[in-house]
Amino acid sequence: MGRRKLLLAALFCLVLAMLPYHTVTVAVMSVDLGSEWMKMAIVKPGVPMEIVLNKESRRKTPTVVCLKENERLFGDSALGVSVKNPRTVYRHLQSILGKKQNNPQVALYQKRFPEHQLQEDPVRGTVYFKNSEEMQYTPEELLGMMLNYSRALAQDFAEQPIKDAVITIPAFFNQAERRAVLQAAQMAGLKVLQLINDNTAVALNYGVFRRKDIDNTAKNVMFYDMGSGSTTATIVTYQTVKTKESGTQPQLQIRGVGFDRGLGGFEMDLRLRDHLAKLFNEQKKSKKDVRENHRAMAKLLKEAQRLKTVLSANVDFMAQVEGLMDDIDFKAKVTRTAFEELCADLFERVPRPVQDALSAAEMKLDEIEQVILVGGSTRVPKVQEVLLKAVAKEELGKNINADEAAAMGAVYQAAALSKAFKVKPFLVRDAAVFPIQVEFTRETEEEGVKTLKHNKRILFQRMAPYPQRKVITFNRYSDDFAFDINYGDLSFLSQDDLSVFGSLNLTTVKLSGVGSSFQKHTDAESKGIKAHFNMDESGVLLLDRVESVFETIVEEIEEESTLTKLGNTISTLFGGGSAEPAPNVTEPVQDEEEVPPESGKDDKDEAQKDEAAKEKQDNSEKSASEEKNQEKTEESGSKTDAKEENDGEKSGSVEPEKELEKKAKPQKKTKISEDITVELVINDISDPTADDVTSSQKKLQDLTDRDLAKQEREKTLNSLEAFIFETQDKLYQDDYQLVVSEEEKEQISAKLTEASEWMDEDGYTATTKQLREKLSQLKSLCKDMFFRVEERRKWPDRLAALESMLNTSSFFLRSAKLIPEDDQIFTEVELNMLEKVINETTMWKNETMAEQEKRSPKERPILLSKDIESKLALLDREVNYLLNKAKFAKPKAKAKAKNSTSSDKSSKANSTAEEKVILPTEESTDTKSESPEEVQPGDAPPTEESTGHIDSDSQSQPTEERTTTGPVEKAQQENHIEDEL
């Protein structure tokens, strides 16, 4: 027993020792990763959701990185270089993430940024930037650099390390693009809690701050988000729902998403840039075409971005660029009308995402209560004008921070996912924009003719909620086989979107070990090959495992039968049953759901059942209300379907108790599962190998180390420069001239001049170590001089404090000695000790100051500030000891005088026990018996004890009143009764 206690104590100490470490690094962050800007937000203990300020104290940072031969810049610094040397600056990388070299999006990027050289990766087929043989970077590596920079900014702002983050991405990102962002975060050493769609993050932010307005009535809101690179319209339903875990909570459900990948503010900037280039060429101030000069076009792009912002508030503006090309200045007037004509076809595309979102949600405009604007490009007046007509509303909602809503929503989700914070639950049901299905081919025989039949099983419909798990069962395979995971019907996409989308085939899954599992369990009944899929919180589809399932029948003992029934009853209680479904009840999305299996006796029936299964799943995703009702009915419905199809599956269904009793047999079915070996062949974009990831991480870490080393060198260089200049100036200040001799001054001055000359010649190429050594030598040389000056500056305050303390201590000592002997609380030893300390301190002060006056200021002082402080501390300790003793000391008890009324009163006021001893007189007792509260006949009169008890409990009367005579007390009680009446 003792050993166990010792072990528990050791474990408790270990936990306590670990606690500070965990509490230090609990901050989490979010990154709203836009194509032009990124915004970061943090949550840390004591600091709620807050936007991170960058080094320029701005709330948003350009998503730009500049890579020179020996320098790396981010944000505004990198953007400044883009005008001088655009070839070294990389931006708008989102559009080429997860894209192969032959993708139209890559060609468009090359057209927009012709200064970059894009090469094809021979293994993956993706692209990378080649600046030189030594400088080659993939889009994922460049994005990883930006994520690492965003974390550095967040850590500086939070003043503690941060590892966990939620990153926003466009809702239309497919599987390859989502994996690319996760790879970039992995290279940056960032742990991604979740990739959250930016429209979902905005909707969460909107709902969190309007929690009180959400009730059990569904409210549909559309968010129209036009950013720099793309436009997304999202329909969100807000409603309170009941959950098993946390009761009634608000929920947002993504109902419909429409998007336009190429409609955004950046395309408007490019058109304005080209318009300005055309105007410059028309002025014919130069024979060269400005469009062939990358540097000049970068200047025009910067001016075009400023011009678009100004034209949102003004009808015209004068664009001007100094020294655009060949030292020629450019100046031209641009009107808002001309801008709107340039982008007329873009404005025509504004309503399309709205229509697509309504189509996906199967809603009408009348069902949308409000349309809210998000994103910087919605500030363009023409965009708002066209959108207002398209949605047929009186006005557009602008009651959300268009720039920061996504970052704030994402950081709320980060806090909810982190174990370090407790936030109010807000349920989020995101939706998969692109359907995903499983395809496989098997051999069928019809009238003696064997044919191959292609089958499809839909895993996730369009707008299916996630995170969610699905199980698909293959019933007709007894040997190794393969199946494909592909995108489903994408007919809702335009031809342009399809060409940009990439490969429609995701993964080929090759299974091995199926045949051997059947050979191993020949006596058991096969229940098929089950593949378990999971679409996680980030919207990434994963194949968790594949298993071969068998069922055998074993004899059952009656006692076990009772336990089984009890277990079934318990499972009914916890798993559902046939109870009436409560309104607005949501089921856990993560529960595994059985996809209707492929089965049937003949091909015609099978085909009909395939269609029925598809229609059933199509209908199950139509609306929120239908989905919620079907989640209850599917449990019994899927059981009936499975029974008809003879597949023997009972996925997630619970039979009524009556049926169980009817079917109860003295036999028990046992499930056996055998894991199947899985080989995945990725068909869209192959993931980088482990070696590639390690190499990229090392490359990024080397760049980070180089940046840190450079910063350290610059810091040391600046410190050395500052020390030289400041010390040279100090040598001529009065404080320093007083304490330094001519010889010492000349020596220091010569060394400073020598260091300054060395700085001009070799200092700017010197290593950090050499700079530190030079600074250390100079500091060592000047140390004595600085010490003498510093001591003389500290003397006045320290000596004044010591003098004040001596006076206070002496006064206290004299007062303590005047206390009469009978009341004295201090011992003679204590008083003598204080007197000794006072005398010794006074003597030390006088002698040391006298000795110091004899010394020259140029010598090392004998009066030191640290000695004064130690004397002060000693005096303070002695006086405080006596003060504390006086504070808690109790006065000595005195002999009680006979027949003393005052002593009776004082002792009664100070002691409750004495109050109970002093009993009321007969007169006061008689007075109380005459009060209106009469004693009924037959009741015993109150005893002296009870009377005393009432007096002691009565807190409304002062203590002295209890000793008053009867008539006075009677008068007071009578007045009290009259007041009550």
Automatic annotation (TrEMBL):
Keywords (A to Z) from UniProt: ATP-binding, Chaperone, Endoplasmic reticulum, Nucleotide-binding, Signal
UniProt xrefs under Gene3D superfamilies: 1.20.1270.10, 3.30.30.30, 3.30.420.40, Actin, Chain A, domain 4 (3.90.640.10), Substrate Binding Domain Of DNAk, Chain A, domain 1 (2.60.34.10)
One matching Pfam family: HSP70
Chief place of localization: endoplasmic reticulum
Compositionally skewed regions (Low complexity) per UniProt: 898-911
Lineage top rank: taxon: Eukaryota
PROSITE patterns with a match to the protein in the record: HSP70_2, HSP70_3
One GO location term (cellular component): endoplasmic reticulum chaperone complex
UniProt-annotated stretches for the region Disordered: 574-670, 890-981
Gene Ontology terms: biological process: endoplasmic reticulum unfolded protein response; negative regulation of hypoxia-induced intrinsic apoptotic signaling pathway
Ranges of Basic and acidic residues composition bias in the record: 599-664, 971-981
Single Gene Ontology MF annotation: ATP binding
Residues annotated as signal peptide: 1-17
Cellular localisation: Endoplasmic reticulum lumen
Membership in a protein family: Belongs to the heat shock protein 70 family.
Identification of the protein by name: Hypoxia up-regulated protein 1
Organism of this sequence: Seriola dumerili (Greater amberjack)
Lineage: Eukaryota, Metazoa, Chordata, Craniata, Vertebrata
